[in-house]
Design goal:
This protein has 56 residues and is low in regular secondary structure. Helices cover 0% and strands 7% of the residues. The protein has a two-stranded antiparallel ribbon. The two termini are 21 Å apart.
């Protein structure tokens, strides 16, 4: 994981791009819902379940 996105904090421990320091290493992120009107309407669309996780 060499592509830390500086300034992006992530607490999603079961994402393959998450590291133990709560940093994102995706290289880029996509945040969605084009029609968002509140924080609950948004989500990281770059999420991928990590190999060790049970979300697969």
């Amino acid at each position: 994981m060499d592509n830390e996105i500086r300034g992006i904090s992530c607490e999603v421990k079961n994402c393959r791009f998450h590291d133990k320091s709560d940093n994102c290493h995706a290289g880029h992120i996509r945040v969605g819902n084009k029609s968002a009107t509140s924080i609950t309407d948004t989500a990281c669309e770059t999420f991928e379940c990590c190999d060790e996780c049970e979300c697969r």
